[in-house]
Amino acid sequence: MRKVSFFKRNCGFLLCLALLLILSLSMLAGNSFAKYSKTVVLKGTVKYAPQSSVAMADISVAPCDDIILIPGTTINTVTSVTVTWPDDAVPAYLYLELSGDHAAEITSLGVGWTKLDGADNVFVYNNGTALTEQPAAIPVEGSFTADTVPAENNQMLQYKAYLIQQVDGVDAKDSFANMDSSGAAVKTAVAEQAFIPASAECTVDEKEYTVTNIGNIDTVIRATVVPNWVDDEGDPYYSIADALPAITFGDDWTQLTQDGVLYLYYNGTVAPNGKTSPMIASVGEYTAPEDCTLQIDIMAEAMQTEPTSAYESAWHAVFNGETWTATASNP
Questions:
Q1: How far apart are CA 246 and CA 52, in angstroms?
Q2: Which terminus, N or C, of the chain has the lesser number of Cβ atoms within 10 Å?
Q3: Residue at which a domain ends, from 197, 232, 256
Q4: DSSP result, 293-309
Q5: Is 21 domain-assigned?
Q6: Angle at 71 between CA 111 and CA 116, to 5 degrees
Q7: d(C-alpha 147, C-alpha 139), whole Å
Q8: d(Cα 293, Cα 228) in Å, to the nearest integer?
Q9: Based on the structure, what is the number of domains in the chain?
C-alpha cells in the first residue's frame, strides 16, 4: 500500500485555513485603521484640519511709537491690528494679549475689545464672536497713569495678536485656553512699544541770555540772574563803592521775588530743542573796579508742564498761559 504524506492528504484543509487566516488579518487591519482615523467634517462644518489645509486670514500689529513716561500724566497706548481676509477663510476668533511693563494697568482697549474671562491681560474682539470678515485695521487704544519715571530706558509693552480658527461647539474662552492642544489653526503677530524716561533739562546761553530745553518733554522755565564783579582770576570782588549796573529784563519774563530771591519766570512753555527769548534786554552803563570785569551768572531750572501741580508745588507759583503769580514763599 502506497503511503500518502500528511500535506497531500490535508492540502484542502490547509488551504482553507490559510485563506481564513489572511481574511482575519485583513479584517483586523481594517478595524485598526478605522479605530485611529479622525473625522474632520461634521454636518458640513470644518471641525479640525491641519493649518496647511485651512484658509486663514492674515494678521499684523502696527509698529508702535515710543512713549515718554511723564509722572502724574495719563499715558495713551495706541496701535492697531490689521486683518486681511481671503474669500475662503474660515471663521476665527481674534485676541490681543498684553505683556511686559504696565500691561496689568491697562484695563480697556477701546471699542470692540472686551477682557477675556479667565485670562490675564487678554482681550477678545467682537464680544467673543468669531469673525468672518472685518475692516482691515482695528484700533487698539489703551491707557494708564504713570506714577513714576523709570530709572532706565528699558521698559517695554508687548502686544501679541492671535487669530484662532473657530472649532465647532467651542467658544472664544476655551479656544484661547486650549489653542495648543485643540488642533485649531492659529496665526500670531507681535509688536512692542518702548517707554522712555521723561527728561526735563536745560542749558543757558550766557551770551544771548536764553535758555534751551535739552530734555525730551515740554517744560516751563525759571531762572535767577546774579551780576558780580570778578577779578583777573575769576574770583568775586565785592565793592560797596562800585555799584553794579542796572539790568533791564525781557518782556517775556515775569519777575517774582520769593524768600528774598528774584526769580525770572518765562511766560510760555518750551518744547524739546526750543529756547526762550532773551531774559536780559539791556545792561546799563557802568565803570568796573580796577582789574575787574562784570560777570552775570544765570542759573535756570526746567520742569514738566503737565500736570501743573508738579511745578506749582515745587516753585509755589502758577502760570495762566500768559504770566506767573506767586502763591506762597518759595521753599
A1: 84
A2: N
A3: 197
A4: EEEEEEEEEEEESSSTH
A5: no
A6: 30
A7: 26
A8: 8
A9: 2
* Same domain, yes or no: 188 and 88: yes
Domain stop point among 172, 197, 222: 197
Residues 6 or more apart whose Cβ sits within 8 Å of residue 65: 78, 193
Q: What is the DSSP string of 318-330?
A: EE-SS-EEE-S--
Which of 233, 56, 79 has its CA nearest to residue 131?
A: 56
Residue-wise pLDDT tens for the chain (331 aa)? 444 454 455 555 555 565 555 555 555 444 433 332 232 332 233 334 444 468 899 999 999 999 999 989 999 999 999 999 888 889 999 999 999 999 999 999 999 999 999 999 999 999 999 998 877 799 999 999 988 766 677 789 999 999 999 998 899 999 999 999 888 999 999 999 999 999 999 999 989 999 999 999 999 999 999 999 999 988 999 877 788 999 999 999 999 999 999 999 999 999 999 999 999 999 999 999 999 999 999 999 999 999 999 999 999 999 999 999 999 755 4
The answer to whether residues 76 and 112 belong to one domain is yes
Bond prior to 307 in cis (omega within 30° of 0): yes
**Number of C-beta neighbours around residue 99 at 10 A:** 16
Question: Using CA atoms, how far apart are residues 95 and 116, in angstroms rounded to an integer?
Answer: 9
Query: Are both 187 and 248 inside the same structural domain?
Result: no
Residue 211 contacts by C-beta under 8 Å, 6 or more apart in sequence? 202, 203, 204, 205, 221, 223, 266, 270, 275, 276, 279, 298, 300, 302
Place of cell 482553507: 16
**Bridging pattern class, strands 67-69 and 186-197:** parallel
Its domain, for residue 237, covers 202-326
pTM for this model (two decimals): 0.73
Residue 246: CB atoms within 10 A of its CB come to 11
SS3 content of the chain, % helix, strand, coil (to 5): 15, 40, 45
138 within 8 A of 125, measured Cβ to Cβ: yes
